[in-house]
Each structure stands twice: as structure tokens, then as C-alpha cells.
Design brief:
Distance between the termini: 72 Å
Strand order of the largest sheet: 5-6-7
Radius of gyration: 21 Å
Number of strands: 7
Largest sheet: 3 strands, antiparallel
Mean pLDDT: 82
Order of helices and strands: HHHHHHHHHEEEHEEEEH
Structural class: alpha+beta
Length: about 300
């Protein structure tokens, strides 16, 4: 069978059009936010140790940090540290989801008893299944966050400040009953109660742009879903994690976080929690969250536990 010359030309044009449509759709994909994870999201794979360090210009960094820039400082610091172990996030998110019915001392005891193998920075987020779920459901973005933080943590911190400045200038970022927004040369977001960490819910496509006339900016950022973090979580850095914004340094568990792109394979942060090299048989029942429980957290509402007795 023979085909006219213009047949192949048409096939090429149609194929090129399909590719351009796919590229355009990918470029317009929404930023990750506290929203239900997409179905079938695949976990990200770690970069090979010989991979070249990626470059992130300021505008790209602003896009990367925008979904977490308004997190309270202690939570943001833990997320940035944990993101550098992006390959461990999916399993940690699954464990947190299946043990969401545990809280406080009971959850802490389960973490210790199960001898979880992930880095303590990842384990520190186990009380926040919604945050781990967000990170696991957007593996490419989580790897971007971790890579950017490994390559240049100071530049990431500068980007966070740029985003916070925009949100505050436009009136979206304000103090409330659960967080204090402190100005000065650097904007800090600190929990009113250091033992109660609230996760903000907001759309990055809204809170970093000038509001349209009549838009109620105070409703754009909601601090509803929170977690009580007691002294038992101190070995994982809670209560001793913060930013030294002036020095462009992240303090995790009272020690500067020094993991970089160059030393990421051998670096061991000085947590006081004992690291486990192998799992032990599970001693707690696995009960994944219901769709209703997930929905309350995605909507920035307080946790509605259905399984705890």
C-alpha cells in the first residue's frame, strides 16, 4: 500500500499538536496544596548519587515553596528537612494514615515500638498525616522541595520570606488565635501555644497575588486543623526546631541542619532519637482514614476521628 506525500505531513502535524497540548497542560498543572491526592499517584524515586545538582532561579523557588511558605516556622522547618528524604515519604505517609487513630503518647509509643526505619526528620511528621499525604501525593514537587533545600537552603529561606511578604502585604497573612505573625526584617509565623501546631489551608494561586475588589482576604488562609505535640516528641526536634532567619540557618533539634547536595549520602543529623535499621512485626492494627476524615483535613477543618476509642 502506498500513501500520498501529504499523508505523512498531516500525521506529523497532528502528532506535533498532541505533544504541544500535553506540554501546555503540564505547564498549567496546579501547585500542590492541602487537597485530596490524585488517584494512582506514584512515589518518587531518589536521584542517583552521581546526579548533577539542579539549578533553581528565584522565580522557580517561589513556585516550589508557595504551598508551604505560610506554615508555622517549626512545621515548615520539619517539612523542609523531611523533604530531603523524599524517597521515604510514601511509606511514612502510609504508616501515618493507618495509625491516624493514635495520638500523643500512644502514637509516640507506636513509633518507638515499630522501630520505624525512616530518618527522624521524616518520623517527626507522623503526627501530621495530612501533611505527609500531601507530600506523598505530589512526589515530583516533594523532590523539588528537597533538592532545592539541599542545593541552597539559604535561597529557599529567602524565597519563603518573599512569599510571606506578598501574603502579608495583600492582607492574607495575619495573626489569629493559634499563630502569631511577627514582622521586622523577617516575617515569622509562630504558634501561640508551642505545643499545638496548626496546619494552614490555603490556595497558593490566591494568597500571593493582589486580591480582587471586594474579596474577603481574611478567609483565604484557614488555621483549623492542628496537632498537639507533647514533650515525648522532643527527640524528633519538636520544641527545639526553628529558623535563624538572619543567619539563613535552619535549626532542627537544637542543631543547624547541615545536609547538602554534596554530603546527602553520608550526612547524619544529631537527633537524640535512636535510629532503627530494621522493622519489627507490626503490633498495632492498621486502620486507614475514612474519606470523611480525609475531607475534614483537606478542607482545613479540625480533625474528626472516627476510629479512636
Amino acid at each position: 500500500m502506498t500513501f500520498p506525500h501529504n499523508f505523512f505531513t498531516r500525521v506529523f502535524i497532528v502528532s506535533l499538536s498532541i505533544c504541544l497540548i500535553g506540554i501546555t497542560a503540564a505547564a498549567q498543572a496546579p501547585l500542590p496544596t492541602l487537597a485530596p491526592p490524585p488517584p494512582g499517584a506514584a512515589p518518587g524515586a531518589p536521584l542517583p548519587t552521581t546526579a548533577q545538582a539542579p539549578a533553581y532561579p528565584p522565580a522557580e523557588l517561589d513556585r516550589i515553596v508557595s504551598p508551604i511558605a505560610l506554615y508555622p516556622d517549626p512545621l515548615l522547618a520539619q517539612v523542609l528537612a523531611a523533604s530531603t528524604y523524599w524517597d521515604q515519604i510514601p511509606e511514612a505517609a502510609r504508616w501515618a494514615d493507618e495509625h491516624h487513630y493514635l495520638a500523643g503518647d500512644q502514637l509516640n509509643q507506636a513509633v518507638v515500638a515499630d522501630q520505624l526505619p525512616w530518618d527522624p526528620s521524616v518520623q517527626s511528621l507522623l503526627p501530621f498525616p495530612s501533611v505527609l499525604d500531601m507530600m506523598a501525593s505530589a512526589p515530583a514537587w516533594t523532590q523539588e522541595v528537597g533538592s532545592a533545600f539541599l542545593v541552597n537552603s539559604a535561597a529557599v529561606m529567602d524565597s519563603v520570606q518573599r512569599e510571606r511578604q506578598l501574603a502579608q502585604t495583600y492582607g492574607y497573612l495575619q495573626s489569629n488565635a493559634t499563630v502569631r505573625v511577627m514582622g521586622g526584617p523577617y516575617i515569622q509565623i509562630l504558634p501561640v501555644n508551642p505545643a499545638y501546631i496548626v496546619v494552614p489551608y490555603y490556595d497558593p494561586r490566591v494568597v500571593f497575588v493582589r486580591p480582587r475588589p471586594g474579596f474577603r482576604v481574611t478567609a483565604a488562609v484557614r488555621f483549623g486543623y492542628g496537632v498537639s505535640i507533647g514533650a515525648v516528641w522532643a527527640p524528633w526536634g519538636w520544641g527545639a526546631t526553628r529558623f535563624d532567619w538572619g543567619a539563613r540557618t535552619v535549626i532542627i533539634a537544637n542543631a543547624p541542619w547541615r545536609r547538602t547536595w554534596t554530603n546527602r549520602v553520608e550526612y547524619v543529623h544529631p537527633f537524640t532519637v535512636r535510629r532503627s535499621e530494621r522493622r519489627v512485626p507490626e503490633t498495632h492494627r492498621a486502620v486507614p482514614r475514612s474519606e470523611h476524615e480525609r475531607a475534614t483535613q483537606w478542607q482545613g477543618e479540625r480533625e474528626r476521628e472516627e476510629h479512636r476509642r
